[in-house]
Amino acid sequence: NRKGAPFLFSGNAGETACLTQGGSRGRKPVKERKGMRKLKQLLCGLLAMALLVCAPPAAMAEDAAAPGPAPCTQTEGCPLPAAPYAAAVYLNGERGSDDKTGTDAENAVKTLAKAKELAGEGGTILITGNVKLENAGEVSLSGVTVRRGGDYQGALFTVSGSTELNLSDVTLDGNKTEVDASDALVAVSGGAVLNIGAGAKLCNNKHAAVTVSAATVNMTGGEIFGNDANTWLVGGGVSVGSGGVFNMSGGTIRDNSAQDDGGGVGVAASGSFYMSGSSVIRNNTTRYGGGGIACYGNAEILGGEVKNNYADYGGGIAIMDGGTGVLSGGSVAENTASGNGPGVFLRDGSFTLKDGSITGNSTETGSGAGIFSFEDGGSSIIRVQGGIISGNAAAGGVGDAVCFDGRLELSGSPVISGVVMQREDLTENIRVDVVGVFSPAQPVTLDDMAWNDGRIFVTYADGLVPDASCFQFTNEKWGALVQEQNIQRIEMYAVNIWVYPTERYEYFYTMPGEPFDQSNIPSEAVTRAGYSVDGWTMRKYDDDTVILGTWDMKAPVDRDLALHPIWKLNPPEVSLTAHDGRVHVVGGRDTIMAEAAHAAPGVTYEWEWYKDGRLMAEGEHGRQMQVTEAGTYKVVVTATDGKLVSEPAESSVVITEEGHIFPDEWNLNEAKHWKNCTICGIKGLENLHIFGDWVVTKPATATEAGSREKVCKACGYKVKESIPAAGGTPSGEAPAGQKQNPKTGV
Predict the structure, then answer these.
(1) Nearest 10 degrees: CA dihedral of 238, 241, 244, 246?
(2) Is the Cβ–Cβ distance between 175 and 148 less than 8 Å?
(3) Which one of 97, 203, 340, 439 has the fewest beta carbons within 10 angstroms of its own beta carbon?
(4) What DSSP state is assigned to residue 469?
């Protein structure tokens, strides 16, 4: 029954046993005596024939439509589905024969082609002996489940020569719960090619899923997961040997483990691993180095992500013993390690960060959370040319970005967020080498284990101009000093500034021999209502109650300083106003009022008055003055808070002299006219009348007298007289005592 329908037998105890042509599920097949096996085969055949004859069409249709195995998605294994399932065919490339039925291990077929034919779409192939695909041309395997059968421990497929094996929509299951495998699911060598595409699942092997040497594997999709390398093989999911090339442009390598290095991928010397596109390497573990990738050869990541992997060291990537690694894109993120280098670990090899990111990696006990390197008899070189190192966490923050004792070369414009720790426990006088134009997105924070004053931390290559602003130190007491092509670390002096409102110190550091940068002084340290800073007292550094003298802020700093501001009371704001701003020429008086204000509370004032620059009499002090003379008056005011006296402040006002003010109308009599001042009443403008010529107002006739008049040119006073009739003479004067209206003359 190739469709895998169960045969049911009832035992004497009423128990039911389920047997299939593929053997029992979930445990190793029970070895039976040869006679018993033949008897069962005979009984199974007879019963199968009976079922084929007696079964109704509906039952036969239902049997034919029995589903195949569910897709394998479990980390712990890819068990075969519970019956009913598609046909299970035994395949043994070493001892099988295509003349056999493939119904059990003893009747295994020999070739993959025959096994595929018998299994059909959705069927299961149980391999009990190695299937060699040597110089087989192009071979495609899809639509079936291939599982390690019996107790077979070797490789399921060995692919070599001119063979190109294509895997898609296929499951290769190593059956690790029942078999301690000693070889891969697929071993590729001798120039062959393995293509792993969409829907392919290579899982649950007690060894790497794929080994490749002197051959090529191209992974564009699918998954490699749940494999456990229980030997000292490098690589739990994939092991790339000498001359092997593994190109990963898609798919996922996840949840694999290794007893040695490389939980996900292991790359031996002279092997190469290339990762790009949407590839993912995640959740892989190893007890040693390289949870995601361990590389003794060459590994380059152009895209994808290495994420959430774990190792003792190198949670994401470990490059060791002459290996080279390049990150040109993608990310190494959120990996962990119990020790050093949860992101990238480097030992006697090289790692180059061109682009991409190393972020969110962490260790609770180690250092170098982003990148860790050390030299163990060889040389280690880290080259950072771009990309991002950020958000990584090391124990105590030690080298949470980079920790190294080999060589660190910097160029380009990378983002390095965190501490770059220079270790000196194995190598003395290590330093950062700037080998090209370097303009980091933010200053690189440096630290080391030596803390020697004057130590060279950074060296610029010849032709480059050292820039100290590109670097800073974890301890703010250290400063960077450029000396030729080197940047030295110099211990700076602490300058403590006393902040009056909070009664505490704010401290700053200054390079020896340089004046303190006063722009660093907190504004609140020199802000006090009504006061300003007039200098600084120098206090004893360890006992600030002892005043040592004053400090000139322009002087070069040559010691640790504790500085307190010297306060001075600001001058008051003074204004001076006059009531009228003038005094009358005779007996005039005006009032001048001075006002003073100050921001400091509780101040008192002293007043001094000046007229035309001369101090006035002592008795004239006060806020108010009465003046009777024109001139420039000034008040000078000083303020005091009981201890300090301010500089004087002054204000001035000009008092002008006001002349007599006369009305429009005149006072007059027969002889003269005058006016009286409307302010003081004094007589002024007094003068005799000045008359003009007589003017005839009525001509005389022969029988009747006429008249004439003359008017004062100043006040309009008029004098009238009559003109006799013809032949007579004028009277000559006005009537005695007559006053004429200056306007009307009457």
Answers:
(1) 20
(2) yes
(3) 439
(4) G
